[in-house]
Amino acid sequence: MDIAENAALVVVDVQKGFEEAGFWGPRNNPGADENVAALIDVWQATGRPVVFVRHDSVKPDSPLRVGHAGNGFKQYVEARRGKGTGGELLVTKSVNSAFYGTPDLGAWLTEAGIGQLVLAGIQTNMCVETTARIGGNLGYDVVVALDATHTFDLVGPFGWRRTAEELAQATAVSLRGGGFARVVTTQDVVTAAK
Question: How far is CA 29 from its chain centroid?
């Protein structure tokens, strides 16, 4: 696998509010945060650009709402912001895709001549998947480091219930099967990026 010298790491919604287990329920992949940190470290050490995405929920009861402590980035992410030698961007959004935030992610990527994105963050089957799908549709070479993401159990229509792990696997299958993104491990990305 090739990781471009100017590939952007897009860190999606790694916010404190997702630690409120009573709100979200059971999650998968307890190693996700360690993998996100490893990706940020490699990107910053190699001078590649990093995009930090923050979900500013408009729902009054959301742990991610503006003004609530949960809206902030997790400590390990906040501690790494501004530390790299490459470009850095903060995108805020209130919908699922980082391409529909402020400032305009697509315009920033175009201006910087970036054609490859590596995605990590929360939730696998929501904002990470939506950003990957739209990125793929827009013609970017999208790579998803699946083990640098996590999600939560979910109840859907007809009483269907899926575990977080089932949802993450469904995302991986859909992204790869639909040609939206390559789905890989953090180690694959780290090895290729060094």
Answer: 14
Beta strand 154-155 with 161-162 is antiparallel
Digit-coded pLDDT (tens) for 44-76: 999 999 999 999 999 999 999 999 999 999 999
177-191: b (≥16 Cβ within 10 Å) or e:
eeebbbbbebebbbe
Q: Which one, of 25, 24, 51, lies nearest residue 36 by Cα?
A: 51
- Please state, in angstroms and rounded to a whole number, the distance separating the CA atoms of residues 131 and 98: 6
**Residue 96 DSSP symbol:** S
Q: Kindly report, residue by residue over 159-184, the tens digit of the pLDDT.
A: 999 999 999 999 999 999 999 999 99
* pLDDT tens digits, one per residue of 23-33: 999 999 999 99
Question: Per the confidence metrics, is the pTM higher than 0.90?
Answer: yes
Please tell me the distance from the alpha carbon of residue 47 to that of residue 114, in angstroms, as a whole number: 14
C-alpha 72 chain-centroid distance:
15
CA atoms 178, 184, 186, 188: torsion sign: negative
